[in-house]
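On clarity, I found the account of how folds are encoded harder to follow than it need be. What matters is that the chain and its backbone geometry are given together, residue for residue. The format is easy to grasp once an entry is in front of the reader. For illustration, here is how one protein appears when written out as sequence plus structure tokens.
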Amino acid sequence: MTELLMSNLINIVSALGFAAFIFVLARWSGIPILQRMVGIQFFFVALHINEELRIPGGFVEMVEERLHFTLVNPHFGELVLSAVVLLMFGPPLLFPRRIFLTMVPMVLGVFEFVMHTLGIWMFDRHVPYTPGLATATCLLLPVGVYSIRFAIKNKLMRAVDWLFVFLYMLFCVGMAQQIVVRSTGMSYLDFLRNVRKSILGE
């Protein structure tokens, strides 16, 4: 049972993203605009993950080759990824009045576009593409930018709220990275050194 669950984590995340999408469509006129956007972004993140890992896939292999570490159990990485997605999308869907929570998935959308674009150079790609770039550019980025502009235009966020968004994202992404990297036997500092070398082309 556990093996069946672990081997279908991406399917489960995809199903949850689709369910969130259907939920916001069904209740469109009765829920806050930013909650609608979170539901849409959840679905788009599910598509993004599928682009990275399945069609065309290859994101994990690209990172492993360039940063010199290997996942012992790919399903463990998917488990951590699934947990992070739920941490980023569950709270804003459940508590949409906490505006800073709704901004976390939106900043993530912009962040994904930036990182996948930088990845073309960082991973020395022969074509201007990294697995995940298409959905990051065409789906995650527009929803993220629209929602951030909406929050700023309507003065829904204070400076301290943006700090909370940054800290929340830093916690989720940083902890996930550390857990996955340490599971391979590599120290997190060595991983960061490899990232630095890759960025600087050393």
Summary: The radius of gyration is 17 Å. Residues 2-200 form one domain. The chain has one domain: 2-200. DSSP finds nine helices and no strands in the chain.
